[in-house]
Sequence to fold (543 residues):
Amino acid sequence: MALLEVKNLGISFGGLRAVDQVNFSIKEGQLYGLIGPNGAGKTTLFNLLTGVYQPTDGSIMLQDKLLNGKKPAQINRAGIARTFQNIRLFKKMTVLDNVKVALHNQVHYSLFATLFKLPSYWKKEKEMDKMALDILKVFDLEGQASVLAANLPYGKQRKLEIARALATNPKLLLLDEPAAGMNPNETEELMQTIRLVRDRYKITILLIEHDMKLVTGICEEILVLNFGMELAKGTPSEVLNNPEVITAYLGE
Amino acid sequence: MEFIEQLINGLRSGSIFALIAIGYTMVYGIAKMINFAHGDIIMVGAYSLYIFIAKVNLPPVVAVILTMLVCTILGITIEKVAYKPLRKAPSLAVLITAIGVSYLLQSLALLIFKATPIPFSSFIEVPALQIGKITISGITIVTFLVTTVCMILLTLFINRTKIGSAMRAVSEDKQAAQLMGINVNRTISITFAIGSMLAAIAGILFISQYTSLRPTLGTLPGIKAFVAAVFGGIGSIPGAMLGGLLLGVIESLSKAYISTELADAIVFGILVLVLLVKPSGLLGKNRIEKV
Fold:
């Protein structure tokens, strides 16, 4: 069954069609890749999927629920979480707090319990600390739980962003260039982490990436965008051998 | 001796400024706007207290709670009606709206209560404290206690609770917070509620010292608290606390040792100096834009 079903999706900014007539569907548990030259509309597509932009036409369905018109926070609660191309952590908060903020929709306690520090408050707080630390462990960040996010090295900030998105308990995780700025070793490690996350949390992942090795190495299916439109779709080898894709990337 | 008494006076008015300044700074931090109607919430608080105590004859504790409730609801309503529709408008439009709301509240008070000042006798009856040659009035003691408790509770709230951390997240990056499932509108409402509640407390403490009600009574403390917030570094809660206290002390000492008439000029002069040396305020962060 398709987890995400995108039909005829399009958005215009004034006269510019940033995304046009895009169709694709992602199956549950799939690792799906989104590639394309600069300015192809990849991040715009992410912004459409997460409610940052409202589509001009077409529809986005998550498990048969229409997402058009929903606000970002509602879409997040419906089950889509994301990371950003340029890291957008809460830099003045600790690593642990970054993850805990994202856990908030899953743990409930009353304001009354909070203000008077009732036992139920402490219990839930401990529960949240544990949940957050469990997620941090997957990314090897548990040792830096009390460090300010701004003070983490770059590669770890990227990992923390994934951890934070994961903490909102998504069905579909969108990763916007997770390997940007990483060296080959770090990229290799990241690939393993992404696979691990998918298997361990049983989630579906859609990722934008320029690193072809990463995309073809882990993605089961790939969508290629060019000038906001679908250029090709298929398995990594199909896409890589598609003459139109080669032209778009390398020129005539 | 006189110096210490002046210092205590300054800390007393300073802690009231601090309570008001927190409202300015929190709203700025989260909604990125200056709520110029904030000072008038103090006025509404003072008049509400007057009605509940002198007209309805409620016991002081009930009157105080009701006053806080009135201001909290007023703060949330102002945000919903006047500022929320302008969330995406340029900041100048929001600023002008805030000034409009401020005049609206003052004019309403003028219409209902008329311009003649209404005398109000303080309901706080705590005996003065004598330490050696220094006398600390009852109202001063109450002011210190109340503001200290408020600041401790607020600090715990911001740093330890779910809503507090959501507020910190929204103040750093509204969009990212939204994408992590945080309801930004609700967070902004809560911020206005807390700011207005603190303004109500400030109004109660203020009117207990200056025992006379006028529709414009919120203006000057409002402006001074705004200065205190900028002085301490707008957006920073510890900054607002520090800025408020310093402003009160500077004002009190200038009145005592330099000139009563010039006290305000000195206060604002020091603000200009601080901002020249450190434009982001005492505890504000210098932002270096990445290019």
User: Anything to note?
Assistant: Strands of chain A lie at 2-13, 16-27, 31-35, 57-62, 65-66, 80-82, 172-176, 204-208, 221-226, 229-234.
